[in-house]
Amino acid sequence: MNEIKFSNLGLKDTLLKSIDELGFKEPSQIQAEAIPAAIAGHDLIGQAQTGTGKTAAFGCGIINSITKKDGLSAIILAPTRELAIQVNDELRRLSKYDNLSILPVYGGDPISNQIRTLKGNVNIVVGTPGRVLDHIKRGTIKLDKIRFLVLDEADEMLNMGFIDDLEDIIKQLPSERQTLLFSATMPEPIKKLAKRYMKPDAKHIAIKKTSMTVSKISQSFFEVSHKTRFEALCRVLDFDTPSSAIIFCRTKKGVDELVEGMQSRGYVVEGMHGDMSQAHRLRTLKKFKDGSLNYLIATDVAARGIDVEGITHVINYDLPQDVESYVHRIGRTGRANREGTAYSLVSPKEYSMLKQIKSVTKSDISRKAIPTVNEIFNSKSSSILEDVTNTINDSDYSRFIPIAKELSEKFDNIEIIAALIKSKFNSELLENYKSNVLEAPKSEDIRLFLSVGRRDGITPKSLVNFIKDTARIKATSIGDIDILENFSFVNITPDVKDKVIEKCIGRKLNNRKVNIEIANRKRK
């Protein structure tokens, strides 16, 4: 499987160009087997664990077969808002040079905006079953030209009570469509669904579950926003001062920009990606191996095959597209029974990917606060004190004593020591930070449990209107909505939590009294 490349799978040039820019050269097993089957027109059941690259497996097949002028050609159903957004983002990147229009639709987002966009030329809709069905009933999603239906994480949609919605949607689609079903497990209801609505000759691709363990590596993440990501990295490096670290970016452009930014601030760093010549990459790798280069910035593809002893840190400047890549990345530290450290810089948009990584790898990835300037100062001071102590104890510094005597005749000894320490401190602190504490990103939504569900006739629209009107908050403060048979989950922004709980508890929705509690975060 390692010898297969995307260029061997029958993909068109525009799609290959997008894949190359994303830094992917070799497809995962599910991609290598599913893409040719999808291009050949087969219905497909893809059974593979989360994090194996399923989005590209079905996305490439669809993008390869449609053009912008084809109109609405594909509907992709996902169990949660987060996954719908994640799939939408990846398909946009894959279809960059095909200029396809892709729209995510889910509860909690104003439906009027979605309707307005659907009146234009949308090629692919990615959405949660409830909201997609709502649009079909309104006539805002036209089904006559649908050629592809994708059920992503079908077992999760079953667990969340969407099986009836799925059947309602499938029954209304053209019979000649191509159906692609992806699921980590195949419970009996999903098998029955596949048998009922997929062609008898559907291909079944089952990828053996592999162990993704990273037990010897200490893993943490830092919450960042887009504008603070670079400074957060600098602060982490200045605080930890890794002796040897690989910093991963998702794209070649990202590598180039980060190298330029860090070099301009004095860090000893170079980059590696697929556009660089083999000779250049070998020279860079040699510098990294012999220790003359502290930090190597690389894409996943460029870093494959790198086996360097003594890498103390792996830092994910961008989270990867799948869990396998995360495991491969951080596995470059903590080798030969040594301790290793893996850090990830995570923005609010990347929380869902972080949850996937935690779930699949069964890892404890703890949140760490971005170091303050005072903490960096204290860390550097301890390091300098240790260096000076070691020099006094172990080194021959006699040739410098005449300089020290000359200075002591002009200045107080304490002032001399302080000035020398300041000089060393300034040479090691490469970034001129403007504030002690780095601004934190916007807080993640609060997830609420509500004691009403599908049996009570609850819909995403009625739930949004109930919360919005009862608590007198804006609809934009309401996020992801999951309606199950007997209860529901709703995400809200932290600033309206108290108001929603105070105003809505005990009120009636569809003649049923509503109880509300703060829920445990949903699994991914």
UniProtKB/TrEMBL annotation:
SUPFAM superfamilies associated with the record: P-loop containing nucleoside triphosphate hydrolases
Domain annotation Helicase C-terminal: ranges: 216-377
Domain Helicase ATP-binding as annotated: residue spans: 35-204
GO function terms (MF aspect): helicase activity
InterPro entries: DbpA/CsdA_RNA-bd_dom, DEAD/DEAH_box_helicase_dom, DEAD/DEAH_RhlB, DEAD_box_RNA_helicases, Helicase_ATP-bd, Helicase_C-like, Nucleotide-bd_a/b_plait_sf, P-loop_NTPase
Motif extent (Q motif): 4-32
Residue intervals of the DEAD-box RNA helicase Q domain: 4-32
Segments traversing the membrane: none
PROSITE patterns linked to this entry: DEAD_ATP_HELICASE, HELICASE_ATP_BIND_1, HELICASE_CTER, Q_MOTIF
Record-given protein name: DEAD/DEAH box helicase
